[in-house]
Amino acid sequence: MTDDTAALPPASHRRRWIRWSITAFVVLLLLCVGWVVVRGLSAVTHLQAVKASASQLRADVTAGDLASATAETRSLAEHAASARDLTADPIWRAFEIVPWLGSDFTTLREVSQIADDIAADGVEPILTASERIDLKGFGLHDGAIDLAPFAKAQKPLSAAATAFARASADVGRIDTGALLPPLADAVSELRSTVDEANGIVGALHDAASLIPSMLGGDGPRTYVIAMLNNAELRSDGGIVGALAVVQADHGSLSIAGQASTADFPALADPLPLSASTTALFGDGPGRYIQNISSIPDFAEAAPLLATRWQDRFGSRLDGVVAIDTVVAKHLLRVTGPQQVGQFRLDSDNVLHTLLSDVYRLVPDPRAQDAVFAGVAGRLFTAVLHSQDPRALITAMADAAEENRIRLWSAHDDEQRIIAASALGGALPRDTVGHPHVGVLINDTTGGKMDYYAKASITVATGVCHGDPTTRVSVTWTSTAPADAASSLSEYVTGGGHYGVEPGSIGTRIAVYGPAGATPTNIRRDGVEENVQTADLDGRIAIQHGFVLTPGASSTITVDYIGKGAGIRSTDVVHTPMASDPKVSYVKLSCAS
Question: b or e along 220-259 (b: 16 or more beta carbons within 10 Å of the residue's beta carbon)?
Fold first, then answer.
């Protein structure tokens, strides 16, 4: 026996040492698992408390209860900091490299960090801004707005907007594809919540930056407000109907004049249009002021409206605002019923009255225009003298969230801010893991039949034949009465003057996919047919044109593959209607 052999421990000792080593490793592993489980559950509890505090904080700020909001802010910050600490230790970070489950640990840590960053850098400045703005009156008094507080709130709101924008980008980078379904759903909910908060805070910052100058703080301003009629749909919500010119001077607002589309005859030489607009709608938006709202990008549409107004009346404009009929419903919930001529309008009957009854009871189109002008003037006065400005702001915010308010400024510095906001009326911007699809609806009846149309939109996502796929399906249904051709007025049915039989509904529906995605499998009611296509800033739009008789229905289906496709958290943007479409999100069935 050699010396080396004699130095080796007996086999039983080696086996015992191995058993003890394995046992120690298992015990250590169990302790580590227990450690991260306990801390993970505690972190989740703190994050749930953050969610509850955020909800209460929003309610407190909205109600103007700053004392309660301050206390809630402290609670939110403490819970967020605790969640971050619980998911930041070396043992937790080690579990992030574990196969299959590591991504879940990483995500929980990242979510905790995002919550803590929002609490530390985003919430406190909002409270500071809230102290500087009268949250109960928003400076509105005797038909004028005090502009000074908005200027004072710009700096803290800028800090808050930066924090929320950073948080929105961070949560947008989280890949939910490898996560356990409950955590993936929670991250998707967080993304929606943070994106919503980012939009709200960004809007507040934009408002504080824009309101002083746009409301005449630096000198008088003049704007045109275009009322869009949802009974005859266009991409932005409806055909351009009544128009009003509004003047603003140091926060004081007044209507300086009104007009109707009858004041703007068709142009022999159309105004210049983008290639995508021409591809979908021809030169109509450049010839007819009514059709300018067919253009889906308001930054292209609004200057055309301004040009038409300035060419007709000679007055220089500082901006354009477009609102649809449903905005009146939101406002009437705040102002209460209003009498306009023979019509007593409230939030329950205003849509039926303005989109249906007025055409039956007031057959003369000029008289109809007078009714719409009267409604605009009456609501304008009621809004400026509202006794509940906070409710008024909420109503306007709800309308803006539904894409029913669009804004453009002729001043470049202001337009840069507006264009990046929801009020800018631009096509949606995709982010990583958060693409958009869209549906544009435009009437071709030449009447007011879209009050009798309904839509539903389904977005199905998944992978088929190795291709990430997003399928957009739009079902368009006529609810017009069977005797619509005789029971409805010629003004409503169009009288067949534009190639659509009275009682039927002619429509163009354009579907566009995620930026960079490729359309395929294009069908209407399961059959291929001729379509129009356009490139909307990197989004391929597919447009079908067809006619429905009363009670009929038709379904358009377009699959998009490649970049941005197949992602569960796909959002839908659509033309605002009097009764908005039902939107459904489902798992893609490749067999279908």
Answer: ebbbbbbbbbbbbbbbbbbbbbbbbbbbbeebebebeebb
Sign of the alpha-carbon torsion through 448, 286, 322, 309: negative
Q: How many whole angstroms separate alpha carbon 127 and alpha carbon 133? A: 10
Q: What are the structure tokens assigned to 546, written together?
A: 């067809």
How far is it, in rounded angstroms, from Cα 298 to Cα 52? 37
What's the pLDDT score for residue 129? 75
How is residue 513 written in tokens?
């996919």
Angstrom distances, CA of residue 516 to CA of 239, 297, 479:
30, 18, 36
Dist. CA 470–CA 473, nearest whole Å: 10
Dist. CA 113–CA 85, nearest whole Å: 9
Q: Which of 425, 346, 405 is nearest to 378 (CA)?
A: 346
With a CB cutoff of 8 Å and minimum separation 6, the contacts of 264 are 289, 308, 312
| Per-10-residue mean pLDDT, the chain, length 592 | 53 65 58 61 71 70 63 73 78 72 76 80 77 64 78 84 85 76 74 74 80 92 96 96 92 91 95 97 97 97 97 94 96 94 94 94 88 90 82 86 94 93 90 92 97 97 94 98 95 95 98 97 95 96 98 98 93 95 93 71
Closest by CA position to 511, among listed 528, 529, 494, 532: 532
The values of phi and psi at residue 459, to 5°, are -115, 120
Dist. CA 439–CA 544, nearest whole Å: 11
Tell me the one-letter amino acid at 204.
L
- 524/548 Cα distance (integer angstroms): 13
Q: What pLDDT is recorded for position 279? A: 97
Give just the sign of the alpha carbon dihedral 50, 56, 60, 65. Answer: negative
Count of CB atoms within 10 A of residue 415's CB? 19
Q: Is the dihedral of CA 75, 77, 78, 82 positive or negative?
A: positive
Q: Is the Cβ–Cβ distance between 477 and 455 less than 8 Å? A: yes
At a CB cut-off of 8 Å and minimum separation 6, what does 340 contact? 371, 374, 375, 378
Handedness of CA 96, 102, 106, 109 (dihedral sign): negative
In the beta sheet, which residues pair with residue 549? none
The alpha helices in 501-551, defined as continuous H runs, are none
- Classified as helix, coil or strand, 549 is coil
Q: State the Cα–Cα distance between residues 456 and 549, nearest whole angstrom.
A: 18
Helices (H) and strands (E) in the chain, counts: 20, 19
Angle at CA of residue 33, ends 32 and 39, nearest 5°: 90
Longest dimension (CA), the chain: 120
User: Would you give the DSSP letter of residue 431?
Assistant: B
Sign of CA dihedral 416, 420, 424, 427: positive
pLDDT attached to residue 74: 75
The burial class, CB within 10 Å (0-12 / 13-18 / 19+), for 27 is: exposed
Residue 452, amino acid: Y
Polymer length in residues for the chain: 592
Q: Which residue has the tokens 């197949």?
A: 566
What are 327's two structure tokens? 């905005």
Please report the pLDDT score of residue 275 as a whole number: 96
pTM, two decimal places: 0.80
